């Protein structure tokens, strides 16, 4: 059931009943899709105020139309390993909504990938992309393939097989995938090469996150992490605060986490803890970003190696306990549902001022409620980590114009986009009488643009 409010108005009850009917229908049809159901519930709860004031959305049944993907593609991915054995994985592409532009969203290679995960990521991608102000719809794809422990040759064979099936469904004006967890510039390169061979033509705009030599954009690697900090900076400015002397912890140690740390440190913050899937490292005097980059980027090693170069630091085996470290700002940048009710209470008890989601849905519903109820500034993923896809759209623009922008040009545009996202979220939250609630603000600002466009375009 939606909404935990004790007292609701007559108008709110009509909306809640309408949403509950749709939610129960989804739950009955796909009861096993827990991630998608969680994302749906968060979305529906956020949209109650806008549906109360805009009954046309109910009259046009926009919610039920929007919550069902336009297209779901599932396929097998056979490939040959280094021992000559045939392996088979399952691939997906969820083309969720194309109302405001071609489907846009990353490709994830990870053992946890299933249809529920793909649908939840694609659903949130719709509103994240809408918030950027760019003409891009929402989609997501991936496979339950684990690149860890695989040779370059095995990864190349897998990527080529994956693209052999996917290429029929994508294109610069249809669906433009990018990288995500397990898919970096190397994997994008292998997939782009296979797409080019199959099409017999060079369509630079079919994938983003490419190498610079064949249409990639400067600043794309840093974009999600930098964008996270640009958004948080706007949150702080509204409270007459800044990053100077703020203590930060961040989960993860990939591109998002590392470049968020880099930008935060440049703005005067001190990062005292970060993690990987094995554990976390803590240094009360501040972590060395140079060492972390060497360990993760150059050596591809575990974060536990950090204490070999910095014996004054401490390493802890359980990565989930990173949220017990006292901090001013917490940046979950790893994976979904990493901050639960217990972790949220621990952060609040230790005086956290800001929590901003650098990853996709890293906080549970209960955790978000705890932050909001305790006056913690909370930045939701669809707004905070939109920098990556925003920069991808800038790469698409460069590809269409056959131009390459400087890093400074890209970074300047990224800053403008993240500032506008924050302002739009704040404006929507205020308009619908939930000041400071950026979860509601982000969902409403992203939703109304897509919903209004769907109505304008008609039912079919």
Automatic annotation (TrEMBL):
Q: Which GO terms describe its molecular function?
A: glutamate dehydrogenase (NADP+) activity; nucleotide binding
Where along the chain is NAD(+) bound? 224, 255
Residues binding substrate, per UniProt: 104, 125, 128, 179, 392
Alphabetized, the UniProt keywords read: NAD, Nucleotide-binding, Oxidoreductase
Q: Which GO terms describe its biological process?
A: glutamate biosynthetic process
* Pfam families associated with the record: ELFV_dehydrog (PF00208), ELFV_dehydrog_N (PF02812)
Cellular component per GO, a single term: cytosol
The site (Important for catalysis) lies at 180
Active site per UniProt: 140 (proton donor)
Key word Hydrolase present: no
**UniProt keyword Nucleotide-binding present:** yes
Give the record's family classification.
Belongs to the Glu/Leu/Phe/Val dehydrogenases family.
Q: How does it assemble?
A: Homohexamer.
UniProt xrefs under NCBIfam families? PRK09414.1 (NF006929)
Q: What is this protein called?
A: Glutamate dehydrogenase
Species of origin reads: Pseudogracilibacillus auburnensis
